[in-house]
Amino acid sequence: MRRLARGTPPEPPFVLVTNHLSYLDILLLHSTVRGVFVAKLEMRTWPLLGLMAHLTGTIWLNREVRRDTVRVLDRIGTAVSRGDGVILFPEGTTSSGEGLLPMKSALLDWAAREQFPVHCGAITYRTGPGAPPASQVLCWWGDMTFGSHLMNLLRLRRFDGIVEFAPEPITAPTRGELTRRLAEAITGRLVPVPTGGENRDQAG
Predict the structure, then answer these.
(1) What percent of the chain has pLDDT over 70?
(2) Among 42, 56, 93, 141, whose CB has the most other CB atoms within 10 angstroms?
(3) Distance of CA 168 to the CA centre of its chain
(4) Backbone dihedral region of 97: left (phi > 0), alpha (psi from -120 to 50 degrees) or beta?
C-alpha cells in the first residue's frame, strides 16, 4: 500500500475520528499517527490483525454488553491522560465508501464532557489502472468474507491509501453536537471510493 497523508496528523495526546472502510484503515492510520484504537471485541479473533491490534494496546469494546461503553470511556480518558492518542470509528461498521454512514455519539461522550478537542480525517482508497474498483477489493463491507477479500487484495500490484486530516480539532458542548460537527467536517473532505472506471492517481 502506498500511503498518502494530506494535512497534518495530530500529535499525542489526541482523540481522532475517521470514516471506516476496511480493516486496512487500521494499517493506514497506524502508519500515520501514534495512537491506540478502539475496536469491537470480535476483532481479537481475526488472523494477524487481531494479534497486531492486541499487541498495540487496542481498547476492546464488547458491543453485546451495553454497559461496556462506560468502561471503554474510562479507558479513553486514561489513555489521553497518560499522553496517548486514541483513534475511533464512530460509524460502528465499514462501508463501500460512497459516503459517511450515520455516526454514533456514545464513544465521544468523554471528549464532550471534558471539552477535549477532537481531530478528524477522511479515508479513501484507489487501485491502479486495469485493477478492480477499490470499493470491491479494498473496502470490506456487506457480506464480503474476510478470506476472499484478503485473497483479492493480495492479487493487487499496488494501491493507494489516502487520509486527509482536518486542519483544526473540534469541540462542542454535547456529544450529539460534537458528533454532528465531526460528521460535517469528515463529509466535507470525503472523496468517494471508485466503484468502477474512476480510478485515478490522487497523489497530487
Answers:
(1) 96
(2) 141
(3) 18
(4) left
Radius of gyration, alpha carbons of the chain: 16
Q: Residue ranges per domain, the chain?
A: 2-189
pTM: 0.91
Q: Which of 89-98, 109-118, 131-140, 188-197 has the lowest mean pLDDT?
A: 188-197
Q: Is 115 exposed, middle or buried (0-12, 13-18, 19+ CB in 10 A)?
A: exposed
Q: What is the DSSP letter of 100?
A: P
Q: Which amino acid is at 120?
A: C
**Among candidate residues 98, 134, 116, the one with its CA nearest the CA of residue 16:** 116
At 149, which amino acid appears? H
Q: For residue 18, what are the β-bridge partners?
A: 121
Tell me how far apart the terminal alpha carbons of the chain are, to the nearest angstrom.
17
Dihedral angle of Cα 55, 58, 64, 66, to the nearest 10 degrees: 150
**Which run of H or of E encompasses 38?**
strand 36-40
Collapsed DSSP state (helix, strand, coil) of residue 127: strand
Torsion of CA 9, 10, 11, 17, to 10 degrees: -120
Read off the C-alpha cell for 76: 479513553
* CA 177 – CA 55 distance, rounded (Å): 34
